[in-house]
Design brief:
InterPro entries: NAD(P)-bd_dom_sf, Shikm_DH/Glu-tRNA_Rdtase
Number of helices: 13
Strand content: 15-25%
Strand order of the largest sheet: 8-7-6-9-10-11
Largest sheet: 6 strands, parallel
Helix content: 25-40%
Protein name: Shikimate dehydrogenase
Shape: globular
Structural class: alpha/beta
Number of domains: 2
Length: 364
């Protein structure tokens, strides 16, 4: 039986209050001060994962730092907290440990963490890429967008996930727009894309300008704050938000009923699992792709550092996607802002977008 661990963290103090309601009585500043020095905690024991003849069990272990703390506190301190959580999973019996959300971003993206453990580590980013591309293409089709003529904007393009997503989708879209904080890194990525596929990608360091030009947005930044706002989106735009915490403002859900925002990187595990449930805000049997990658490697008995560091190869993405298909893992039904989207709701979004575009054309 394969055994894995997976490290999670609260996005903010409201996540802590969901599990420990008494926390609501204190200020966010006080709670973060306490969390800074708290030890890792066991969040869930996932048992009896049985998939096509293979079996696995896993332990979710939470490091208590919030998203803001993971990004703002000194890197050596944060890495020590992450390592402590990994070692807790290791003591439970994990033979491989996955790094969830921003724990895979800090420092050198898992390399230093792996060196301090006796079991391998994976960030899960290869399968995140595979599912992000699948979800983006499916959502575009549902909205009637022709990929070959569409403007695709990758937000956070120079990160490990964004870069390989851009490389793999470059030849499939009409125009590729890359946006990130470092113009120098954007130029380097654009050069790589041209050498691989002869596609001339557009560089736009101004994120809001980049988003305003896009028919499809793949949001994969590692920012702690919201980056994409309702006033910046075209009618009928598709946004696949892979970032955790999310890149898309909650205001979009309230103000733009003509754009399709989906949570990227969500995977359905066939058969689910046993064990006391832990709330990710997801239904039972649905996990993030980074966690699914860790599960897949355990099911295969492949105890190796499959995805580590800031460079992901196209071959890695294809390999883990093939393993997912082998074990029956598949893209979950679309969700938006923690809510399941029905086919009729998606159709309604498409119809409202078409009406807005017609009004714009007819306007004097």
């Amino acid at each position: 039986m394969g055994k894995f661990g997976f490290v999670i963290h609260p996005f903010d103090t409201s996540d802590v209050a969901r599990k420990f309601p008494l926390v609501d009585r204190f200020s966010s500043e006080w709670v973060e001060s306490f969390l800074k020095h708290a030890p890792p905690i066991n969040a869930q024991h996932m048992q009896n994962i049985r998939v096509r003849g293979a079996e696995a069990e896993g332990w979710l272990v939470a490091t208590t730092l919030t998203s803001r703390q993971l990004l703002d506190l000194p890197v050596p301190f944060v890495l020590r907290k992450i390592v402590a959580a990994c070692k807790k999973a290791e003591r439970q019996g994990a033979q491989i440990v996955g790094l969830g959300a921003l724990t895979s971003v800090v420092g050198d993206a898992g390399i230093t963490v792996a060196r301090q453990l006796s079991v391998p580590v994976t960030t899960g980013n290869s399968y995140t890429v595979a599912t992000a591309i699948q979800a983006t293409c499916q959502a575009a089709g549902l909205m009637g967008i022709d990929l070959g003529r569409a403007n695709l904007c990758v937000v956070g393009a120079t990160g490990s996930i964004g870069a390989v997503c851009a490389r793999m989708m470059a030849a499939s879209v009409g125009r590729l727009i890359l946006t990130a904080r470092s113009e120098e890194k954007l130029e380097g990525l654009a050069g790589m894309i041209f050498s691989e596929s002869s596609v001339l990608a557009d560089i736009q360091p101004d994120l809001r300008e980049a988003v305003r030009e896009a028919d499809i947005i793949l949001a994969v930044s590692s920012a702690a704050e919201e980056l994409i706002h309702p006033e910046d989106l075209k009618p009928g735009a598709v946004v696949c938000d892979v970032a955790r915490p999310r890149d898309v403002s909650q205001r979009v859900a309230a103000e733009r009923d003509d754009v399709l925002v989906i949570e990227g990187g969500l995977v359905e595990v066939p058969g689910g699992w046993d064990g006391k449930p832990f709330s990710f805000g997801l239904p039972h049997g649905i996990v993030y792709a980074c966690m699914a990658e860790t599960m897949l490697l355990a099911l295969e008995g492949r105890y190796e550092c499959f995805t580590l560091g800031r460079s992901i190869s196209v071959e890695q993405v294809r390999e883990i996607d093939a393993l997912a298909r082998k074990h029956g893992f598949q893209l979950a039904a679309f969700r938006s802002f923690e809510r399941l989207l029905s086919p009729n709701e998606i159709l309604g979004i498409r119809q409202r977008a078409e009406q807005k575009r017609k009004k714009k054309i007819l306007a004097p």
